[in-house]
Amino acid sequence: MLLNKKGIFDTKPLPTPSSIQHVLLLMVVHLCRKYLFIEEHVKICVYLGSIFVGSIISDFAPFPRTYFSRKDNIFNTYFVKLSWAWTLLFVVSFIYMTARVYTCRNWDMIKRHLLRIVVATGIWYVCTMFFVKVENNYGMCSKPLKINDKYHCTSSGHKWYAFSISGHSFILIYCAMLIKEEAKALIGWDGIKDMIRNEEYSRSTDGKEETQLYKLSDEELSNLKDDYSYFTPYIRGVFIGMSLLSILWDVMLISTIMYFHSMIEKFLGGVISILMWFVTYRFWYRRKGISPGLPGEGNVGYMNPCNPLEASKMKRKASLISDRKDKDKVPTFVGMPIYSLRNQGLPHEGGSLDENSSKSIS
């Protein structure tokens, strides 16, 4: 207990109890995290391995035709062909809301975080145009023409045979990796509430207990508290939507592997998407001052942006070790054991139970 500003002894405030609806929502978010935050190297190996093996199987032993083998199926028509628009709808709103919280409404920092989407859109556009250019200009018409390109060939009623890098393979993997990276801002999110509560308590006791938010001004702390309480339910909802979208992109990638393009076309599209992800999130965005930065970088140090998943694992591991140590301790009250050590079968300090017992008898 510490004295507050009014000279009255005060204790740290306890977390508010959670409702059943809140617990159920956190369970759904936890399941989404399990799927979305699969290790990068595992996910990349699964993507490229599936493309390689699945494409070879489909080339030599075609899969049975299904609804997904039709190009006009509803998922391909309204989702895959508009995949970038769907991804932007969820990711932009998620970045804005989370960045507004962990930057304490620092609009310059929020704009920098949104700049990652501008970069990603530029990558999507350049790569898509490159794929189209390769297909249109490097192929062969079923009938020789003076101008050998796709437009003049197809407009004359002939077929155009060309090497077509799989745009579906590229965009589906790239969208899934983008969603995964941006969603990492939610790691450690629940801890912000405790940080705010502890900082408010520290300031009410004239800062006698230093917290992680001690550098924030009163205005920044107020912005953080207001935005966190207001946006967190929406952030969790958008996170669930992003997870469902990522699942859909993975399912449609399986459909692409089974029914469309050749193995080399799909594999090359997948490699290019992973290369673009690596250059941005694993190289460029980690360079301070010359990049938009990583998700989670701001005024609130609630997570490690460079390696949030590993830091979260280490924190859980330390908690488990601490719990095991606590179980080995004898419960005490005011420094004295609550119950007899003899009943617990535990030795006293300075000797075994039998030795101490024999001493007391003698």
Could you explain how this protein is built, in words?
The protein is mainly α and 362 residues long. It has 13 helices and 6 strands. It has helices at residues 20-36, 40-60, 74-80, 83-102, 107-137, 150-155, 167-183, 191-204, 218-259, 263-283, 308-327, 341-344, 353-361; strands at 2-3, 9-10, 139-141, 160-162, 332-333, 336-337. It has a two-stranded antiparallel ribbon. Strands 3-4 form a two-stranded antiparallel ribbon. α4 runs antiparallel to α5 (107-137) and α7 (167-183) packs parallel to α10. The chain is elongated and about 85 Å long. The two termini are 45 Å apart.
Number of strands: 6
Largest sheet: 2 strands, antiparallel
Order of helices and strands: EEHHHHHEHEHHHHHEEHH
Share of residues in helices: 55-70%
In angstroms, what separates the terminal alpha carbons?
45 Å
Low-confidence stretches: 318-323, 340-362
Proportion of beta-strand residues: under 5%
Mean pLDDT: 82
Judging from the principal axes of the Cα atoms, what is the shape?
elongated
List the strand order in the largest sheet.
1-2
What structural category arises from helix and sheet content?
mainly alpha
**Number of helical elements:** 13
Rg measurement, Å: 29 Å
